Amino acid sequence: MKKIPAILAVLASIPFLTLGIIYLVASATGVRGGLTAVVMLAVGTALLIAGLRRLRRLAQISPSALKTGAVELARRLGGDLTVSQFRAEYRVSRELAEETLDDLASEGTCARERRDEHFIYVFAGLLPPLAEKVCPYCGTELPVRTALRKCPNCGAQLEVTKG
Ligand SMILES: [Zn+2]
Prior knowledge:
The chain is mainly alpha-helical. Helix content is 55%, strand content 8%. The protein has a 3-stranded antiparallel beta sheet. The chain is rod-shaped, with a radius of gyration of 29 Å. It binds zinc ion (ZN). Zinc ion binds next to loops.
């Protein structure tokens, strides 16, 4: 984690900004120091912005934020996610993307499946629930896609319930 340099940059910006303001006030009251004020304020602002940006980025790519992001992305994509899709969305390294998705797989949040040349991560819990596919009266398997009103085996009235 490169958090400490970012925090140091933010902290280092404080004396630069403070001195910059002091020089600015000094130059406004007639004492020389206008150029110093500009330089100090510029350096301080640059450090502050760089540090804060880095911290925000680190928060975005923290393991827990990435996991939440992966689940959200998978939901938008219909339940399947590839490393490439994940990387494109969150601009992270291949290693970090694979690590995050493998973590989710080992937690049981998704399953890693081989499809053609690459792996995909299937988030089964996010898929729409399948309709009941067994007749509750005789146990006959029913076609899931068709909305049957009657069991073809025993003729019982069926209620197609969402699991
Ligand atoms: Zn039946």
